[in-house]
Amino acid sequence: MIPKECKRLAEVDFPIATVSRHSAGGGRTGQPSVLHLWWARRPLAACRAVLLALLLPDPCDENCPDEFKKIARELLRKLPGKLGASDRELQHALLRFVGDFAGPNNATQATVLEVGRGLVKAAHPEEPPLVVDSFAGGGSIPFEALRLGSEAFASDINPVACLALKVLLQDVTRTKTLEEEIQRIGKTIRKTVENEIEHYYSQKTDGTRPTIFLWSRTVRCESPACGAEIPLMRSFWLCKKAKRKWALHYSIDRSKRNTPIVNFKIVEPHSVDEVQKGTVLRGNATCPCCHTVLPVERVRAQLISQCGGADVLFDDSGNRIGGARLVAVIRQGGNVEGDKYRLANESDYRLVFAAMKKLQNLERVANSSPFHITPDEQISIEGIRSTWVMVYGVTNWGQIFTAREKLVLSSFVRVMRSLEMSPECRRLIALGIDRLVMQMNAHSRWKPTGESFIDMFGRHAIGMVWDFAESSPAFGADSLFGLWIDQIGNFISQVAKFGFRSGEVALSDACSHPLPDASAGVWFIDPPYYDSIPYAHLADCFYVWLRRMLYDTEDAPWFTTSLISKGTECVVDRPHRLSTSQKDSTFFEQKIADAAKEGRRILADNGIASIVFAHKTTEGWEALLSGIVKAGWSVCASWPIATELTSRLNARDTASLATSVHLVCRPRTQDMVGDWGEVLRELPKRVGDWMERLQGEGVRGADLVFACIGPALEIFSRYAKVETAEGREVPLAEYLEKVWEVVGRSALEQVLGTAEAKARNGAAGALEEDARLTALFLWTLQSTDAEVAKKTENEEEPDDEDDEQDKPKKKPGFSLIFDVARRFAQPLGIHLNNWEGRIIETEKGVVRLLAVSERAQQLFGEEGAKAVASRLAKDAQGDAQMVLFPEREEETAKIKSHHGGKPFSAESRAHGAVTTLDRVHAAMLLQANGQANGLRALLKAEQERGADFLRLANALSALYPKDSEEKRLLDAMLLVVPR
């Protein structure tokens, strides 16, 4: 047993860069992810490495058992590399192993796995340690615990997660014949269903088979002189690759009826300009016949009358009279002339009509199930922020799918239920049908740039998709269900090969855990990230199908309610006018506190914990940390690991995090009172040292900012409370404000010099507020080195989708959450209001740093950069700043006169005079306009003025993103500086 006094390896050091490289490099793909989608699944690499470091003692600790050190050396000698005799060298070797073990190939290499499990056994010789995850979700943490030879107890409040966990941690590891059974039963189900449904898809006249059907929802033009049917198409591209381009081209037929008709043909454009613009933008539809714009309110009203508009409207004879329009079919096989795209035809509609009639007949037949054969459960209004299709008339879960898709899915359910199979196999088959649910729905997309199919959960929401892609279930060797059966079979054989233990799973609220006191060796959780993902609302889409498959099985108790219970789920519901949810930051903080108290209760006396968090707002962090501190935990280490991806939609030009911070915690054992003064004196050095360490590991920007919370909290959380000299208790929020201030000052000192960190209200030697704000803004936006752009199972990037919640065309510049900008600016004496409209723009809680191009009129007035450059060139000896801000020249002259003609002081600058940043931006604009003479004149004047101009220009050059226009202009301008 590891003594309570002995520190764990994770408390003293961790190979951040190595583990980040393995984690951000695709650690979520394969393995457990083949079983079922789970949102924000943690990379296996990060979980494996952190867990191993939590389980092992630090060999340099005086309380580390000698027997462990002896066995550890014997085990590590099985691997390449030298191992010294000292405890420090053993520590380094263990850290190196932790980093290497995170690699996906090493994790399945027999010798490496033997060493990893051997180290855990050496550290816990009496019995395997129990790892508990009470927010288990996708199961990465308990799965890695089993890999390491530990015992695992996984629980979650969501029944969909629990079912997947049960399959992952129990069924796959316990049943030796499961692979054979799943292959046999899966093949029977596939063939039976194919025989029933193939004739609703196949057209064999040309030897091809359809794989994807491209649909558009439709509305009617409301112009009295038109009335045409408008196909809602965000784009007419079918394929948009460098050497391969296909698109739809519409024409208007006015010959046969009073109402014009939109016809399509498939073309091979030679340029982007040849492709017509889409008909819908941000919910507003433009009629291609008369160009009348139908506002979003009317588009919504028409789609509400169609219950979302995913289905075709037929008359009794099977003639299409409205509703969804099939515009193109993507096919495979045969000898197709031209390409794999073809236009829809009447036979396609006949198949859809036949499928619809078949479904209607099935619904009329008596059903032995207690449910309607397809989902009719109402979508929860509280989840409207994540299921905003509701405002377009999609009010129940069945309306998410087309009639043909419902027919296919219900056929799989019915055939599965008709066959005898083991409970383990039945659960796996149910998860396989959920895989079809992800793809066979009216909210998946076709991505022309990659010619790829993007399933419904390309985002953490179910939004309106105007033109959607219907996937064929495919048949024979291409069967979607059959492909999943093959993948799961491979996964089962891999798990069997390496002899995983079996874990325990429970449907349980983390705030009321079923385990007894002091039973866990490690409490390792990855709780929900504040308001990031509404798990229960999204999982309802799977839940409504699972309860139809499992209602009379041993798993039925998990599926008794019509929808997943959401009232106690530990998330913040974003406010919406139609929602009455009260789950705000206070609710989240209390839930985290209650869960943390339970974690402390079930943790053994010598146990240790880790809590993972990644959120880009300070409110989210404060709610989490307040809950942890209230529950009596002390943070003893924190490790930021790159786990997030630049392909995320919200990662572009914002401070979205690339890292998840892993807080290592111990229960606080003493109720000491901390002195506020002592805490503040200790904070700068601790944070400064940590920033230096993290930057050496490649951690940058917002990731570094939030990673500094850990060491800062180590100081604060060691006390039951912290008081001022007057006896006032200091709340955590007040302490965190000091943390942001220290981080901001340290950042400014790094990028602008020592004086900038001490600057407040224009202190001597410091640059002006706007320069400090810009530098701090750009510093926060820097990217962590380990960040990579790989796709994950639930983070595919859709094409330029337009829906009601899409924002207008992205403005230039760079953005920060307002709260983050304010937290830095305020304690550093930077007043955001002073610079609104001048260098920043604030809208809907986001602060945007204006692009330099947007400042031309501010800096040069109506006459523009070229005219100003001409004036500059006429008098190279003149004061260049006097032509800036023409409308302020009189005021500027007065200020200069007041100061005896001397260079502007901080006081004069604060009254509206030209700042150093203004002059740098002016030079950049002159460079952009090719005004070489004017630029040289300005640069000469600035050299005579002093060093501030070049100091700021060089700093900004280092801070702007490498591919930005500002970076290019600065570097080009600096080349012109006289030497």
Description of the structure:
The chain is of the alpha+beta class and 979 residues long. Among the domains are: 157 residues, no CATH class; 123 residues, no CATH class. Helices cover 41% and strands 14% of the residues. The strands form 9 sheets. It has a 7-stranded mixed sheet, with helices on both faces. Helix 8 packs across helix 13, helix 9 packs antiparallel against helix 14 and helix 18 packs antiparallel against helix 20. The longest helix is centred in the last third of the chain and has 21 residues. About 7% of the residues have low confidence.
Helical run tally: 32
Compute the gyration radius: what is it? 31 Å
Low-pLDDT runs: 646-656, 786-808, 875-911
Q: Give the proportion of residues in helices.
A: 40-55%
Average residue pLDDT:
86
Major beta sheet, strand line-up: 19-2-1-20-21-23-22
Largest sheet features: 7 strands, mixed
**Percentage of residues in strands:** 5-15%
Shape: globular
User: Which structural class fits the helix and strand makeup?
Assistant: alpha+beta
Amino- and carboxy-terminal Cα gap:
68 Å
Topology record:
Layout: H1 9-12, H2 16-24, H3 44-55, H4 66-76, H5 87-101, H6 110-123, E1 130-133, H7 140-147, E2 151-156, H8 159-174, H9 178-197, E3 209-216, E4 218-220, E5 229-231, E6 237-241, E7 244-253, E8 261-267, E9 280-281, E10 284-286, E11 293-294, H10 296-305, E12 312-314, E13 320-323, E14 325-332, E15 341-343, H11 346-364, H12 403-418, H13 423-439, E16 445-447, E17 452-454, E18 467-471, H14 480-497, E19 504-507, E20 520-525, H15 535-550, H16 585-602, E21 603-613, H17 618-630, E22 633-642, E23 659-667, E24 673-675, H18 676-696, H19 701-707, H20 709-716, E25 721-723, H21 732-752, H22 754-758, H23 769-780, E26 814-817, H24 818-825, E27 840-843, E28 846-849, H25 856-860, H26 864-874, H27 889-898, H28 906-910, H29 916-928, H30 932-945, H31 948-959, H32 965-976
Parallel strand pairs: 1-2, 1-20, 2-19, 20-21, 24-25
Antiparallel strand pairs: 3-14, 3-18, 4-5, 6-7, 7-8, 9-10, 10-11, 12-13, 14-15, 16-17, 21-23, 22-23, 26-28, 27-28
